[in-house]
């Protein structure tokens, strides 16, 4: 899976181009969202960043062609996966999903700086 790494590099460059020194949390978030899209969604997968005009914070968006909605899994000490969205919900200022008119969805997360 090379897509999560490419998404992390894209986010790092986006933050650097805007003079934001620390992209680490945003890179963790986008990596999880892209991995979920790869594992549970459908192609095409598209990553973009928009700025929320109300507060100036970056919003990471990962679109995919799948109709299934991501869900935070219950906590488990024995599960070997299923923690990604729990981490996203802890790290992001806000997150959610919205359907796309053409089918599929966008999963987004707002980054607090």
Automatic annotation (TrEMBL):
Gene source species: Actinomadura chokoriensis
Matches recorded under CDD domains: HATPase_RsbW-like
Gene Ontology molecular function: ATP binding
UniProt KW keywords: ATP-binding, Kinase, Nucleotide-binding, Serine/threonine-protein kinase, Transferase
Domain Histidine kinase/HSP90-like ATPase: 6-105
SUPFAM superfamilies noted in UniProt: ATPase domain of HSP90 chaperone/DNA topoisomerase II/histidine kinase (SSF55874)
UniProt xrefs under Pfam families: HATPase_c_2
Statement: the UniProt record of this protein carries the keyword Transferase: yes
Descriptive protein name: ATP-binding protein
């Amino acid at each position: 899976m090379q897509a999560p790494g490419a998404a992390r590099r894209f986010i790092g460059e986006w933050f650097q181009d805007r003079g934001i020194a620390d992209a680490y949390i945003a890179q963790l978030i986008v990596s999880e969202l892209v991995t979920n899209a790869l594992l549970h969604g459908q192609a095409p997968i598209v990553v973009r960043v928009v700025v929320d005009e109300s507060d100036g914070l970056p919003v990471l968006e990962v679109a995919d062609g799948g109709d299934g909605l991501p869900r935070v899994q219950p906590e488990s000490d024995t599960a070997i996966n299923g923690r990604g969205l729990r981490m996203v919900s802890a790290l992001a200022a806000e997150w959610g999903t919205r359907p796309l008119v053409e089918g599929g969805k966008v999963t987004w997360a707002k980054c607090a700086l």
